[in-house]
User: Fold this.
Amino acid sequence: MIDVLDVSHHYGLRPILSHINLKIPPGQLVALMGANGVGKSTLLNIIAGIMSPAKGHVEINGLRRRADEQTELQIRKLTSYLADHPWLPEFMTGREWLLAIGRLYDLEADRLMDHISRLLDLFQLSDKGEAPIRTYSNGQKKKIAICGALVPETPILVMDEPFTGGLDPSAILALSRVLKLLAERNGVTMVMSSQIAEMVELTAHRIAILDQASIVAYDTLEGLRAKSGCNGSLPEVFERIVRPRTVEQIENYFKRPPA
Amino acid sequence: MKRSFHVYSKAVWPSPGWVLLFVLPYVLLALGLRILNYNFPGVPMSDLPEIGSARTWAISAAAVWYAMYRLVRFHPICSFRYESWLKTTPWLADKPLPLGPVLPVWQDAVVLGVLAAFAKWQAHVDPVMPVLAFGVTYLIGMNVLLALTRTWSSCWALGFLWPVFLIPGASQWLKIGMGAALLAVVWHGHRKSLRTFPWRKENPSSHRPPIIIYGDLIFQSGIRLERPQNVRTPTSVGWPYSCLSPKYIPASVSRLNSLLGSLLAGWWTYCIIRASDAPPIADLILFFTIIGAFVRFAGYCSGLVPAVNIGGRIALGRLILPGFDRVFLTPLASIGLAILGGMWIHHAGQHYAPVCAAVVSVVCFALLSGGPSVRKWVLTGDHRSCRSILQQTRQQPLTQV
Assistant:
């Protein structure tokens, strides 16, 4: 369970998050959506423990982040984070790197090695497993980073834009199915940001829409449809909630001045 | 047993090639002098002070090299391959080291005796010089090796004993006694360090994540596989994995070590002041405190920046954010203590040396043990983690996804 309690944050004079309250029940996948620069990554960074909010706090399974050293280490053991642009060691091979990540979480060696092989197989990286990460393509780097988030088998998973970064369609599909099954079978609690509405529709139990530093809607897709009064696809629902004037703006754009 | 001891102890002598390296230049120098004396019989070349000085340096260099050779060649910590091999043998600390002893043996006395005799009768310089050069180099080297093998109690003892030699007016017997004490501490420390072999172990409390132990990991799972030789050992698993790791426990200085380190700094200050006729040290203390404060701040904030910048503080109406700003407290307090200490030193009068020592100790203790601890700061501070330049080295470049 993830509890975001009255979190506010500023970048300079600009408020990026204002009194955010968000409760993510166990075993659910929540997708954060919003326009670019609206604060999705900041909120995920705060949940993952990368940064401390200016006000408010985050609780993971009832434990408050940064309350004390023991609690923070306990929370770190429960949480895994896929950053938007992580930095990976160039000279390590993919398999070595995943082993190193697994060892940070004290995973049992046999189980860890087996899990790594399955992950590499899933994301079609078996052939690249023994090659240094610097030889990977952009998409392969993204895949190995995703494997790095999945390998610790933590009950809480925080992901910033997992479907972007050059992933091929089969990897996107595989990841969406894995996330869905992780929630359903293993009860993993997940929060992710994504701009790919199809994947959000396919995987997320609930969707939180951020706009103007606040959460303007937080519900299931059906709930959002009811709230927006739009029975269309998620992009249409999103547009109705966040940018109701989009159609009018498009018309204005193509309106030519009289000759 | 007798025979094996004989062979074992003879191994400390350097190979003829190394001996030639020192003998040959010396012989060339002596031959040159002979030729000059032959051509200019009226000029006593050997009596020139430059020639005497060159001889002293040459013989001392040989003694220094021999001391270093004795440590580097025979101590397992100096050779990764030797240490790795020794780990695989049934060797125990109470048995002799297989490649030869680190502590002095009678063969060392022979080598030093030859050097001293050479100095006295051939080079006509002080025969104590090579013995002294060997002794000082050997003891300093052992001090370093004891630190590398984490035999801290002996390192502390040596640190406190060394500066006694600086105190002017100390009797010859006191200095001999101190030399004997240094030898005793080194001997005891070395025996103690051997008992803690192997030294290069995976340290769970290290801030470095225990990684890339590929072979070990596979060994744990029951399969033995050699780690490829060309695999480098990085110090980080990248960003943000290292900074979010549940094993991210930064190294801190314990309260006891802070106290001992501070007392040691004060004791060295006292001895140096006694040896150098009360130099003006108050400004130096302030200068080094500012550097120390900066180093501490830089160490604490490596890869961590304020979560809220100045603009954010103004917007929030909170100019001071205790969760972050506590990192400034100890450096500022230390600088304040150094300024106050400087004022005290100016009025110290005849108690100049002890007052300076006290100020240095207090400032060092404040810098080393002032809160928050690194661990507490990293895990609970109100900061934002960013990729640190320290995480990227030539051995450990990172690539962005």
Q: What stands out?
A: Chain A touches chain B through 56 residues (CB under 8 Å). Chain A has a mean pLDDT of 92. The first helix of chain A runs from residue 40 to 48.
